[in-house]
Amino acid sequence: MTLPITDSILRGELRPNILKQSLDQKELELLIRNARKISQKSQLLELEFAINDVLSGLVNTKDIYEEDKKTRDAALHVRANKIIKNELRFKYIDSEVIIDNVLPLPELKSPLLRFYNTILDAEVLRTRQAILYLCRAIQDDAFIRSTLKAIFRKIKFICREALQWEEHKDVMLLIPVKLTHLYFTLLNTYGEVLDSYEATEYEDDFMDFVYGWKGEYPTSNEEATYKKQSGIKTATVNTLVDMSDTPQTKDSVASIETKHPKDKADIFLDSVSEFNFLEMPKIKQLGSKEKVHRLVMTMLENPGHACAMLEYLEFYKWIKEKQRVNFNLSKYDSLCSKVVMGKESGSAFHTVRMSLNKNNINAEKYRAYAYIDQVVNEYITLLNC
Questions:
Q1: Strand pairing of 95-96 and 234-235?
Q2: Contact in structure between 59 and 8 (CB atoms under 8 Å)
């Protein structure tokens, strides 16, 4: 479990000076505006997709999140297929102890500082959820204990490193405050998992931890707030939606993957989620996941049909104007070659798109033009049913 956004703020493309140098003013303003969408996401996969979307080209969160998902999926697979026995004695986490707003933040005086505040909040929430889901999928206290100890060491190091920066002190002060809250959220939530006969390998005292990076103890009011929050448990069943769309119990975790096998529409929607496909105006207007699924399943009948429907939905315009800086038709063709035609590389979809014009020399190969009126009728029928 890593903290790629925080790492990038300290050492990578998200450092304030590097960010301002690498993006022109319009690109920076677009980045800041798009970051606001992150705060609207609460489920793990939606949150990860939103982060990937906003930080694409700046931070490689996508590969890191995908590796975490592979670990969870592998654990669910072995349990669903009874490759290993379920460990019934593991500590099932059904509530969190959320530590927040204990230590003061610097005043958010600029849109850029608000941007950093937003993406750090997203990283904290994503880390909490990812560990919770990992815990429920793995069902192995020793593995989770090792994961938590590793992230504790990382947070402790980052908190001290951030305060050594002479520049951008307002941004750098956000980091240890946010990560201290994360550290003690995890510590209090997974207290039973962390308990063992071995010596404690992490700092478990709030006052001493803050002193370690700040050089002074929290105030008595801050200490009192921490103690109050550390005694409050928040049920995860209502605040965190697990790997399926329905709340889980310990007994249901292992069977999640087998209940809802993915069809080609599901796979398509997963593939385009990083572009917030479900947020497109015509898609949102349909009003239900079932209608969206039916629309996608129908259009994937063949590439020409899909091309015409995506044209009607204005998918390219949506990506170019709302989702990606410097997105062009070449990139769109490559994307659709993959998500519509199953081509991992190349621009086969270009020929399909050209067949929207019936006078094109290759139009008869895919005949997208023949579906232009049909897709409008399909959409209106779904909308009104």
A1: antiparallel
A2: yes
